[in-house]
UniProtKB/TrEMBL annotation:
Stored CDD domains: CBS_pair_NTP_transferase_assoc (cd04607), NTP_transferase_like_2 (cd06426)
Species in which this protein is naturally found: Marinomonas piezotolerans
Protein name (Swiss-Prot/TrEMBL): Alcohol dehydrogenase
InterPro entries named among the record's database cross-references: CBS_dom (IPR000644), CBS_dom_sf (IPR046342), Mannose-1P_guanyltransferase (IPR050486), NTP_transferase_dom (IPR005835), Nucleotide-diphossugar_trans (IPR029044)
SUPFAM superfamilies hit by this protein: CBS-domain pair (SSF54631), Nucleotide-diphospho-sugar transferases (SSF53448)
The keyword Signal belongs to this UniProt entry's keyword annotation: no
Domain of life per record: Bacteria
PANTHER family on file: SUGAR-1-PHOSPHATE GUANYL TRANSFERASE
Pfam families, sorted: CBS (PF00571), NTP_transferase (PF00483)
Keyword check for Transcription regulation: no
Coiled coil: none
Length: 353
């Protein structure tokens, strides 16, 4: 992702001369025409400007007269491989990244997408649960090792991080750890490093942080994820969001809708003041993915039993610097049999096989 893409944003009333200056100075070869709330209207390339000059337009004319209003764009959930394939298919050197609401969130260039960045940030995967709700499948197999498609859930999780440039993994185990050790070993076959920490007794969703070795990178945020989560979240953008906001911790959240199946009556005393038929309430719920600063990771004592909400609440009281990162990408917590069956179908359309 180009770090200077915001400089490529201009309004529809800006002059062609300004667009030309941006294209020349920022080396992005494109200017993005947006509304005041940053919704994409069109793009302008050097070729668009040359054609305008050949048609006799002045450089003082507004860019709205020459912009391409139907440009090739990419979703902000697209992976690097998908972006490269898109640009190669359309022979484009860059592509705007646009969210579901039409707002520009970035600009990816072919050069940047092909230059694979490597992240040394530790990735900590919680894989110690019993998977009780998936019995009898988990009677002889830890839940993260159940196969979705042709590989274990945990392998899919690890490979999704590898595709984003991460290579430094830690796995917390408890239930049937030998199966996980035997399958992944030290990560040699995947070209990464995998280390294990073992919970002798369950320490809660956050307690395993206290078991991490002293030699993990001490100056880098850690990404933590439940080992039964199947998702297409862009981990690079998640990490960048955390770092840019200098957060103590960032929690990924999902929007959850709950519809009350009855008409809701509001009143004062015995007088009805309003009636709402089957209202829908919307909440943000924990998605089981976090980015944690070293200060949060190091605050957990060895063998301390603590859940992640309690850990984050403690730091919220201290500094009020815990953020949430709403995700709209695919996300599935494989906790129940229905979820497991759904994952078997979804995996074929996610490009994660």
């Amino acid at each position: 992702m180009s770090h200077s893409w915001q400089k490529a944003l201009i309004s529809g009333s800006s002059s062609i001369k300004k667009a030309l200056r941006i294209i020349d100075s920022e080396a992005l070869r494109v200017a993005l025409v947006v509304t005041p709330d940053r919704k994409l209207l069109g793009i302008i390339t050097d070729g668009d400007i040359r054609r305008a000059l050949l048609d006799g337009l002045s450089l003082e004319e507004p860019v709205s007269k020459i912009m391409n209003t139907s440009p090739i764009i990419a979703s902000d959930s697209a992976t690097k491989d998908q972006l490269v394939a898109l640009m190669e298919k359309h022979q484009a050197l860059s592509v705007p990244i646009v969210g579901q609401d039409g707002v520009v969130t970035g600009l990816e260039t072919l050069h940047s997408a092909l230059s694979k960045k490597r992240y040394q940030n530790p990735v900590f995967i919680m894989a110690g649960g019993f998977g009780t709700r998936l019995k009898p499948l988990t009677d002889n197999c830890p839940k993260p090792m159940l196969k979705v498609g042709d590989k274990p859930i945990l392998e899919t999780v690890i490979k999704s991080f590898i595709a984003s440039g991460f290579n430094n993994f830690y796995i917390s185990t408890h239930y049937m750890p030998e199966q996980i050790h035997e399958h992944f070993k030290g990560g040699e076959e995947l070209g990464v490093s995998i280390f294990y920490v073992h919970e002798e007794s369950p320490l809660g969703t956050g307690g395993a942080l206290g078991l991490l070795p002293d030699n993990i990178p001490q100056n880098l945020p850690l990404i933590m994820i439940n080992g039964d989560v199947l998702t297409t979240v862009n981990f690079e953008r998640l990490l960048k969001f955390h770092e840019e906001n200098n957060a103590d911790a960032t929690m990924c959240v999902r929007e959850y809708d709950y519809q009350i199946p009855y008409g809701v009556i509001n009143g004062e005393g015995n007088r009805i003041t309003s009636m709402v038929e089957k209202p829908v309430h919307r909440f943000f719920v924990n998605a089981g993915i976090y980015v944690l600063s070293p200060r949060v990771v190091n605050s957990v004592e060895k063998n301390e039993r603590i859940d992640m909400p309690s850990l984050l609440e403690k730091h919220m009281r201290d500094r009020q610097n815990i953020l949430m990162f709403p995700i709209h990408e695919y996300w599935l917590d494989i906790g129940r049999m229905d979820d497991f069956k759904r994952a078997q179908v979804d995996i074929h359309t996610l490009g994660m096989e």
